[in-house]
């Protein structure tokens, strides 16, 4: 195995785990973060006390607040919150070589228009090979060696091969896909349906209801994906249905928690306050509503959630008001 120089931008739990996985394979790893004190602490103690205090980091993983130190990297993984993704992409542009593989591991859309994170990378780095890393990946579980899988999607087969080599361990499996747009859409869109499943949990709906929301949500995701040029069959994989199930079913998901508070009768503002962190699905919901209306794509769960969250429509204590009026066809894209 070739030992490489890999940088991860973003020192949160997900960025720390990915940097750790790369270091386990003997690579020289740089973990960039804004906070100089946390970087110093990681280098002294080999622990990210703020985000993953239970994970002991390898000595070949070095943290830094100086973004210019990523300049000699073979691969750079972006784990930046979506709201700051453009800013950091611009900041790093002066230091990244055209030969570096660039991978986004951030799920979400920009609040203006329907720009996914890979679209931002393409804008700033038009000559670099670009990949998407996405799947049902709760960082704390991976840190605790729970068996997990993810998808690396790219049109560049060498990037896919190198990423599998860089990040795979006996408990973290990396699979490849050549539909990056579909993989990235799956990671962004599932947060909407996690809110819907959270509402169902808050209303004490049954498991049948949760299964119905996930499945009908998957149909909506595929509908929009096909309209925008992605392969809807991509959503049958880890980055689609796998991530959807994990996020919709997990009480650890902020989107799920937010929805549960709404189902229990809290107002949108009260639920936001109680969560206290970014709820990615809220921004995605607004963007997806706009594009589905514009393109005339039927997304009844999106329509219903939008009315409840942004228009003040009453939930009336029933999950029916979330499901909306759906088409009667069970499985789409089947001839």
List the helices and strands and how they pair.
Blueprint: E1 5-9, H1 13-24, E2 28-32, H2 36-45, E3 61-64, E4 75-78, H3 82-92, E5 101-104, H4 117-124, E6 130-134, H5 139-143, E7 148-153, H6 157-167, E8 172-177, H7 180-202, H8 207-227, H9 238-249, H10 254-263, H11 268-275, H12 280-295, H13 300-310, H14 320-323
Parallel strand pairs: 1-2, 1-4, 2-3, 4-5, 5-6, 7-8
Antiparallel strand pairs: 6-7
Helix pairs in contact: 3-4, 7-8, 7-9, 7-10, 7-12, 10-11, 12-13
Q: What is the gist of this entry?
A:
With 335 residues, this protein is of the alpha/beta class. It has 14 helices and eight strands. The longest helix has 23 residues, at 180-202.
Write a structural description.
By secondary structure, the chain is an alpha/beta fold. The chain has 2 domains: 5-178, 3-Layer(aba) Sandwich (Rossmann fold); 181-323, N-(1-d-carboxylethyl)-l-norvaline Dehydrogenase, domain 2. It is built from 14 helices and 8 strands. The chain has helices spanning 13-24, 36-45, 82-92, 117-124, 139-143, 157-167, 180-202, 207-227, 238-249, 254-263, 268-275, 280-295, 300-310, 320-323; strands at 5-9, 28-32, 61-64, 75-78, 101-104, 130-134, 148-153, 172-177. Strands 3-2-1-4-5-6-7-8 form an 8-stranded mixed sheet, with helices on both faces. Strand 7 (148-153), helix 6 and strand 8 form a beta-alpha-beta unit. It is globular and about 55 Å long. The N and C termini lie far apart (44 Å). The relative contact order is 0.10. The mean pLDDT is 92.
């Amino acid at each position: 195995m070739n030992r490489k120089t890999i940088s991860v931008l973003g020192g949160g739990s997900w960025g720390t785990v990915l940097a750790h996985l790369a270091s386990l394979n003997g690579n020289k790893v740089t973990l960039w973060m804004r906070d100089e004190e946390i970087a110093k602490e990681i280098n002294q103690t080999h622990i990210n006390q703020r985000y993953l205090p239970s994970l002991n980091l390898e000595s070949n993983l070095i943290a830094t607040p100086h973004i210019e130190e990523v300049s000699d990297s073979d691969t750079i993984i972006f784990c930046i919150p979506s709201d700051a993704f453009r800013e950091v992409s611009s900041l790093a542009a002066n230091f990244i070589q055209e030969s570096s593989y660039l991978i986004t591991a951030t799920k979400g859309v920009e609040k203006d228009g329907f720009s996914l994170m890979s679209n931002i990378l393409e804008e700033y780095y038009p000559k670099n090979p670009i990949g998407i890393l996405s799947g049902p990946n709760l960082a704390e579980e991976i840190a605790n060696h729970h068996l997990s899988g993810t998808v690396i999607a790219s049109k560049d087969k060498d990037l896919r091969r190198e990423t599998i080599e860089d990040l795979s361990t006996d408990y973290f499996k990396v699979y490849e896909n050549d539909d990056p747009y579909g993989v990235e859409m799956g990671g962004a869109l599932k947060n909407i349906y996690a809110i819907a499943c959270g509402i169902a949990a808050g209303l004490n709906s049954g498991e049948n209801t949760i299964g119905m929301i996930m499945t009908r949500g998957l149909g909506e995701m595929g509908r929009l994906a096909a309209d925008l040029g992605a392969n809807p069959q991509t959503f049958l994989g880890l980055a689609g249905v796998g991530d959807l199930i994990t996020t919709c079913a997990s009480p650890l998901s902020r989107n799920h928690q937010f929805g549960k508070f709404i189902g229990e009768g809290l107002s949108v503002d009260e639920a936001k306050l109680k969560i206290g962190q970014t709820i990615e699905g809220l921004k995605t919901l607004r963007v997806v509503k706009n594009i589905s209306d514009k393109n005339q794509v039927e997304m009844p769960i999106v329509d219903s959630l939008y009315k409840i969250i942004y228009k003040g429509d009453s939930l009336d204590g029933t999950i029916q008001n979330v499901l909306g009026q759906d088409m009667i066809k069970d499985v789409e894209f089947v001839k």
